[in-house]
Amino acid sequence: MNGVEGFMYPNEVELQWSLLIVLYPYITGLVAGAFILASLERVFRVEAVRPTYRLALLTALAFLLVAPLPLQLHLGHPERSFEMYLTPHRSSAMAMFGFVYLWYLTVVLLVEIWLEYREDIVRLAQTRSGAARWIYKALTLGSENVSPASRRIDDRVGYVVTVIGIPSAFLLHGYVGFIFGSVKANPWWSTPLMPVVFLFSAMTSGIAAVLVLYVISMKLRKTSIDMRCLDTVAKYLFYTFLIDFSLEMLDLVQRTYEADESFRSLDFMVHTRLWTSQVLVQIFLGTLAPLGLLAMTQLWKFAEMVRRRLYVAASVLTLVGIFAMRWNVVIGGQLFSKSFLGYTTYKVQFAAREGLLPAVALMILPFVLFFALVKLLPPWEKQPTEA
Amino acid sequence: MDTTRRDLLMQFGKLLVLTGVAARALEKQGEAPGPGDTYHMAEHWWGMIIEIDKCIGCGNCVRACAKENDVPDGYFRTWVERYQVTEDRDHPIVESPGGAIDGFPPTTRTGIKSFFVPKLCNHCADSPCTQVCPVGATFISPDGVVLVDQAYCLGCRYCIQACPYGCRYFHPEKGVADKCTLCYHRITKGLTTACCEACPTGARQLVDLKNPKDPVHEFLRDNKVQVLKPYMATGAKVFYKDLDVAVR
Fold first, then answer.
1. What angle do CA A8, A9, A13 make, to 5 degrees?
2. Which residues pair with B207 in a beta bridge?
3. What are the sequence ranges of the domains in chain A?
4. In chain B, what is the straight-line distance between the N-terminal and C-terminal CA atoms, in Å?
5. Which residues of B fall within a CB distance of 8 Å from A9?
6. Spatial separation of the C-alpha atoms in residues B224 and B239, rounded to whole Å
7. Is the pLDDT of residue B246 over 50?
8. Which residues of A touch B235 (CB under 8 A)?
9. 3-class secondary-structure state, position A342
10. Residue A218, SS3?
11. What is the pLDDT of residue A386?
12. Residue A367: which of A20, A21, A58, A83 has the closest Cα?
């Protein structure tokens, strides 16, 4: 049969979860990672990362709004998807994810952003004219009190929301890992490490994304980059990525040493069909290379310009590496037969419903939303007073 | 010899009783146990027995299933695999051309163990596929059959991923998960499944594990049986007699 090597159960030849399902954990990971970076400033008082705080919140929101779209596009009956909220099946990891998502979006992210921006929104509602004025008026939710006392309350509530937000962000992405890690039928997915690996890879990709967006935003605005901030963010990226990589290697060592009945099949797959995406792109290009670059910046003192370039290069490679990791989990987990006797092939279509074109569009959309959010809620409004 | 009216009545009576007994026996043999005018789900717990050594790989079951259930081309509610196993049980040669809908071409290999393994949904009592469904569109009926409510299924395909046996597929026209229903529309009317009916050797038999009179109890007592991938702990209810260790 076309693209099949060895024996697959006849219904297995066709892959069920496509490129769009690769995007879903990737995008959700960026959300969780960006939020955790934002919470560093808020909860752990890492003042150095303050310039990225609002940017990280907006990044998280832009990506979170897009996160369900690849799933919707993938469903056979998207019009029924709301049933997940109306009649959820409590034993289903996927059904419960719907609630985790909703909790995170409404209780954590929107509240935190609103509290953070409340003063700005009120000011903008009073200073802008025309339609913008009405938009900001609506965003005040009827509260125009920005007295120091009310701001203190905002700050305190915001703190509590962030404290709740950290475990929520962990839950959000750890849960995505659980959706895969709990499928006992699939040995490539089924490991208790999966939620933890997903979580740390999410943090890694989220931090990298905020770093890149921060540098690009500053370049576009022709504003100087706060190097203390960039150095700190890069340091966090390095440490988080080290933990992520160690966990993945732990998983690999465990699998290799245990060598259960699936091992030979999975090992063959990694050496053949997944060689490029797993070994070359994910491990060498997307993990060892950025870790090497980041390690260099920790070991030696480079000039600002060099550091900046090294950080951006490492972050871009990290984003490629984590995308490859999602690909290898989602697609890799469907390339081998559950009989462990054969392998199938996945060919990405171009203009199909689950093809490359909608996938690219879905990856551009968060940036469009991010741009719109930055226009609506300028993240640098406060900087001059704080600098 | 003169035949009295009394003798005639006796003969006729005997004939009537015998015919009745024979008709009852035939009825029991030919159809699934537990039929009746009204079907009570709570009184049944359906499963299947498959005798590997009786399967001749003719593909009748696959064809009958496809016809009965309007299975789309290239997808399978049931299929048959041919195993050819040398002493190296880790590397069996396994084929299922077109799910064996047209049977198998003759093999040229000699000196190896060769046998057929019919496969279908195991209608697991602890089914991982129903566990993961986000809306409960796939469920275990009270009589132990794993079904999909096609008017409710989102088509997320999580259940297809969760099935360790590859028994589910995504219906290309309906956009929902589809699978063997154990011919639920037939068994609830007292009939057997299309695949069991079409099997020329009786290799597949529908069984009702809740019916104390079902021969399955004797069968399970007298024979060594196995389920597929027992380590998956799915509570599979398709029992295989003479299942080889090479079978996955």
1. 60
2. B47
3. 5-386
4. 70
5. 79, 96, 119, 165-166
6. 10
7. yes
8. none
9. strand
10. helix
11. 40
12. A58
pLDDT at B52: 98
Give B191→chain A minimum CA distance, Å.
27
CA–CA separation, B245 and B243 (whole Å): 7
Size of interface A-B (CB pairs under 8 A): 122
pTM of the model: 0.91
Q: What pLDDT is recorded for position A325?
A: 98
Per-residue pLDDT tens digits for A216-256: 999 999 999 999 999 999 999 999 999 999 999 999 999 99
Mutation for B interface: A21, A71, A77, A344, most B CBs within 10 A: A77
**Domain A5-386 homologous superfamily, CATH:** Formate dehydrogenase/DMSO reductase domain (1.20.1630.10)
Percent of chain B past pLDDT 70, that is, above it, reads 92
A11 with B168: Cβ contact below 8 A: yes
pLDDT in tens, A355-382: 999 999 999 999 999 999 999 999 985 5
For residue A271, pLDDT beyond 50 = yes
Q: How confident is the model at residue A147 (pLDDT cuts 50, 70, 90)?
A: very high
Q: How far apart are CA B132 and CA A94, in angstroms?
A: 7
* Mean pLDDT for all residues in chain B: 92
Q: How confident is the model at residue A15 (pLDDT cuts 50, 70, 90)?
A: very high
Which chain B residue lies closest to A339 (C-alpha atoms)? B248
Contact residues on chain B for A75, CB-CB shorter than 8 A: 154-156
Given a cut of 90, whether residue A42 has pLDDT beyond it is: no
Q: Which residues of B touch A (CB under 8 A)?
A: 74-76, 79, 81, 90, 92, 94-96, 98-99, 119, 128, 131-136, 152-158, 160-171, 174-176, 232, 248
- At residue A381, the pLDDT reads 55
Report ipTM (2 d.p.).
0.94
Chain-chain contact of A185 with B163 (C-beta, under 8 angstroms):
yes
Q: Are A4 and A171 in contact (CB under 8 A)?
A: no
Predicted local distance difference test score (pLDDT) of residue A383? 47
Please choose, from the candidates A179, A239, A230, A248, the residue with its C-alpha nearest in 3D space to the C-alpha of residue A203: A239
Disruptive mutation site among B84, B139, B148, B161 for chain A (greatest number of A CBs within 10 Å): B161
pLDDT given for residue B23 in this prediction: 66
The strand ranges marked E within B18-153 are: 46-51, 78-85, 93-95, 113-120, 138-140, 146-148
Cβ-based burial of B98 (10 A; exposed 0-12, middle 13-18, buried ≥19): middle
Q: Two tokens at B153?
A: 């299924």
| Residues in A 52-111 with any Cβ partner in B closer than 8 A | 71, 74-78, 80-81, 83-84, 87-89, 91-95, 98
* Contact check, Cβ <8 Å, A94/B153: no
Name the pLDDT band for B34 (thresholds 50, 70, 90): very low
* Neighbouring residues of A136: CB distance < 8 A, sequence distance ≥ 6: A121, A122, A124, A125, A128
Which H helix or E strand runs over B27?
A: helix B5-30
Write the Ramachandran bin of B133: left for phi over 0, alpha for psi from -120 to 50, otherwise beta. beta
> Would you call A71 and B156 a contact, using CB atoms and an 8 Å cutoff?
yes
Residue B166 and residue A83: Cβ atoms within 8 Å?
no
Contacts of A309 (CB under 8 A, 6+ apart): none
Option in A10, A71, A98 nearest B79 (CB): A10
